[in-house]
Amino acid sequence: MWDFCHSTVLSDDPEWKLHCVVGSRGIGKTALVKKVYDDDAVKKHFNHTLWLEIPRVSDVKELMKNMITINNDHSRRVIEAMDTNMLAQFIRQLIESSRYFIVLDDVPDIGIWRALKCTFPIENCGSRIIIISRSPELCHNICVETRGDSHVYSLNLSEEESWILFCRKVFSGSLVRPLPLMQISKDIVEKCNGFPLAILVIACALATKGKNTEAWELFHGSLVAKLQGSYSEVEHMKRILDLCYQDLPFYLKSCFIYLSIIPKDHVIDKMRLIRLWAAEGLVVEREGKAIAQVAESYLNELANRSLIQVARKHPDGRCLNLRSTKIKHIPGSIGKLENLEFLDLRETLVNKLPVEILKLQELRHIFSNHFAAGYIHGFEAPNKIGTLVSLEMVNRINATTSTLIELGKLTRLRMLYIAKLRRKHGRDLCSSLDKLINLQQLTISSFGVGDIIDLHYPLHSTHSSLRTLVFEGRLERFPQWVTSLQVLAIVVLRGSKLMDNALETLQDLPNLVKLVLDRAFEGEELRFGAGRFKKLKILCILHSTKLRQMKVEEGAMPFLEELQLCNCGLMEDLPFGIEHLRKLGYLLLEEISEKLLMTLQLKDSQSGDYWKIAHITRVHVKML
What we know:
GO terms for molecular function: ADP binding; ATP binding. This is Disease resistance protein RPM1-like. Residues 318-584 form the Disease resistance R13L4/SHOC-2-like LRR domain. This protein has 19 helices and 21 strands. Strands 6, 7, 8, 9, 10, 11, 12, 13, 14, 15, 17, 19, 20 and 21 form a 14-stranded mixed sheet that branches. α4 runs parallel beside α6. β11 (415-421), α18 (426-433) and β12 (441-446) form a beta-alpha-beta unit. By secondary structure, the chain is α/β, with parallel strands linked by helices. The chain is globular and about 90 Å long. Among the domains are: 1-154, P-loop containing nucleotide triphosphate hydrolases (Rossmann fold), CATH 3.40.50; 159-305, no CATH class; 489-623. The two termini are 57 Å apart.
């Protein structure tokens, strides 16, 4: 149906045409036409495009005023002074002798059409009008009394059309189905009653399950249960949509529900929505990914499930996404993309950017990771990368002396990931970091296992925006300037190999809420002192193979909610004082010693330690 509607609108036939799309409420009429209306090819094909939503109770003059773009106060005053006849004449003159495409959404009665049709010149310029309505009789009457070529299209699909649409979404267009899924597929399509929206959302939900027969059968069973009985078309559609909502992962449900506060048919900017989700705490952090990246993946998942509609994309060369391609080299011609803002080279074979990249003065984001010899590498930057002063995010840039000095010129940077850092680079990096006062997220990775991250040089800036700090590599000592990071919320240490005083630098950070120590501690005892880590909520201690004991004094970590102890095989006892952590709701003990496991199993014995964690809601245990 979309292909037919799309091709009809873009037909080279110069004759003026009126199309009525009719169907029950909630069947997907508006979504289908909106997809055609927002298509880039459609926008380019017509001189004027207009989408007009018709309220149930409509004032014709207000509708006409809504058809006019007003650029300033003078124009507004002139328009306000016009009566209905003057407005109709004004609109007619605006679009006369031009190719226009107008959509009238949810036309309630023929009177509205009669009042508005005088504004639309019927000329052979290839213009198109689409009327969306629930009433077949209304659409028939409109077509009867309208001069020109007019047609009524019912949105219910035929059996064959339904099957083709379903296969296109689930099996990437192939009409050849896996045999185990054949009967289930046919039954599911039949239960959609030819409703395009129902077929679309169900097919997109099933597409996430691959060819897992068990998952398909489970979904099919839920669908059968949902649709038992006899329902109106609207209720039938609601039940299908509810099932597709229930099929969402937990992290998408709250984000999807949040969209209910946005007015119907309102277009919201992607980045604004991402910021709103993040501000509401709806985005679940993923290790190694910025909140904005995670939120964008949520948005893509919802769009792929056809539960939200992409209103428009930016076709103006602002984004170049080469992610997960086999590209090895970026050609010098990239310098011609003068509007480029976003360059994504993640999961490619690109390890060097050409000098022509320096021409891209609008470039804001560079994301890269190059896989080679089992390791993830960054990209080699051209000399004078500091001239790209619009850069805000740089992910995995390889450290060289000249590159680190140039980074100090990129004062708009909010996110920076430096790879292949050597000990000799410490002074130059600290000098540049001192100038990057807008940093929110900083990741520093050493060149190799033997290289030391040495950042003991002083910083004078307070870095009042830095919230996430990640060190990947050996630290002989923790940088003292970290103690001045008053808003620092997340610290991740990987392979740091710190000794007994590892926590002293971090323990008094006023806003630290998450601490991850992964192969980061080589001492035998970790001590959390009273009154320390006052806001810490999540503590993960991973692969500390020499750790034997962890002590928690009363008053330490008063708000800790989650504790993970994984691959700490020498620990034979629960953390001493764990019973003081009264807010602790989740404890993960993975790859623990057999002795520790035995003490936990003695629930009814005073010699056991289970009583110490009896207050914890969720305890997951896995032994060596």
